[in-house]
Amino acid sequence: MKDHNPQTMGQQFGRRSWAEPWKIKMVEPLRMISREERDEALQEAGYNTFLLRSEDVYIDLLTDSGTSAMSDRQWAGIMLGDEAYAGSRNFYHLEEAVQNYYGYRYLVPTHQGRGAEHLISQALIKQGQLVPGNMYFTTTRLHQELAGGTFVDVIIAEAHDPNSQHPFKGNVDLAKLEALIKREGAENIAYISLAGTVNMAGGQPVGMANLRALRELCDRYSIRIYLDATRMVENAFFIQEREKGYANTPIAEILKEFCSYTDGAWMSAKKDNLVNIGGWLAVNHEDVFAKTRNMVVIYEGLHTYGGMAGRDMEALAIGISESVKDDHAKARVGQVRYLGELLSDWGIPIVQPVGGHAIFLDARQIYAHIPQDRFPAQTLAAELYLDSGIRSMERGIVSAGRDPKTGDHRYPALELVRLTIPRRVYTQAHMDVVAEAVKAIYDNREEVKGLSMVYEPEYLRFFQARFEPLS
Ligand code: PM9
Fold first, then answer.
1. Is the CB of 170 under 6 A from ligand 1?
2. How high is the mean pLDDT of the chain?
3. CATH assignment of the domain containing 27
């Protein structure tokens, strides 16, 4: 049995205990509706947690995207919005923050991450090219496909194994990548699509040594590396914790060094950067900047706001500076880990090691009797809501979608439910309530039969698909 004494648990962070480096100034009431009402809400939502009304949710662990609590400084920044159409001073603050903390030369603001994914994919991918990367992400891969590319997974094999304890499961398999380059030719590779703390693998980090070796390999073949920096601060935390030589390096420095080995990054600022809306693309090459800066005016807005209000950009600039602080990152990952350790101590199968932003329940193991095309993870997310009002997200066969060439379901090795922890929002007591609810579902696992899909949209089906329970 592991130790859940907060005092001793904290010792892993080098002091007696960890605690959030903030106190609460404003609260929002939570509401728990009855089981009958939850049953009705779930039916209305077609057993898809994305289709629930948030008012019907008690603890919302759907996502850490846009769900952070902003600080008093960020809210003060909102009042300093310069809402000029062009040249808002808040844009220049944001540009400075990205240059200072991520180190890239040029900035193109976007309304959120997928806006930036759209620009970089359209700018860099030629029809028929391959885009190797460390595991797919839903919106990222779709934009790469819509631009004419094909994503190729070159993550290490351990990433597909929920029980592997590899400290850097987000690493690229360099031998696999080099074999692909040799087979297909470097000219047929658009760029490397590298993600920090790989979302679909369970929030698993990439090591600095792996990235340095990747850079060296890519330099030999003149291939560029673009980074999905969405949760890169959390990746930097894991490097500080696990990689030799970084224990005394501040997270901000690790982040900047990591980015320095890449040619640019896209960002969903709704995660690490602690805002409710926003995104950006930042690059080092002037030609890529010129192209994407021109495209942004077609799809997002003028190049000095890219779909954000001036006030959003100010809150984002401040959020970036707060997000890279060591205390913040330790408390953020510490809370996720607290929940993970409670669940693993009760024998509930989760992806190991616990990642940066979420606990991933292993639905394949929990519902071993439900075949993957009866959507075990979707079923588990629905059951958890029904039991406790807790909202989570499917990250398995539904999220993986269909192969655009064959039209068949993609069958990912990982069939997971994500309990995603918003930043600076819930307390340790909420985590206890969540753990107890998951335990109740786990104890009842034999009773559950699975779902059938009765409506399937063409793109990113997990957002809007509808299901019915199998009897
Ligand atoms: N991620 C998440 O809940 C939002 C909803 S699911 C599409 O995890 C990465 C690694 C993400 C991500 C969004 C995006 C897209 C890019 N990369 O949602 O458009 O996790 O801001 O960012 C979600 P936007």
1. no
2. 96
3. 3.90.1150.10
